[in-house]
Amino acid sequence: MSEMMKTLSQCILSSPKLWIDQMRDPATTWQSLYCFGTIGTPTAKAGRYAPRYYALFQGHAAWTIVNLVGRYPVPEQSFYNDLIRQDPQLLDLLLECAGVKREAWYPQLEVDAGRQRL
Known about the structure:
Helices cover 69% and strands 0% of the residues. By secondary structure, it is an all-alpha fold. It has one domain (2-117).
């Protein structure tokens, strides 16, 4: 499980550049089918929404990690110790993920920002 958590952490820490590049490239824009549910989305539209779908990807990866370690019934402490023992770098990656800045493509930031201005 530590390998899966490490991979998910690396996904969280990755850049949205690959997503944006692929959505703007006519050869790979077909992948927007998974975002929009239709084939033939214009590359301009797909590229514009790529950061948002990347943010969803990041969020899903983070919640997967939370669900793996925060399950019920709560595992014995040895479970967590074994995870870190299997891959000591995992703890560093998780702490790095905790510090990832939430970019402007998270719509919840716009809602929160609007509320603060009132």
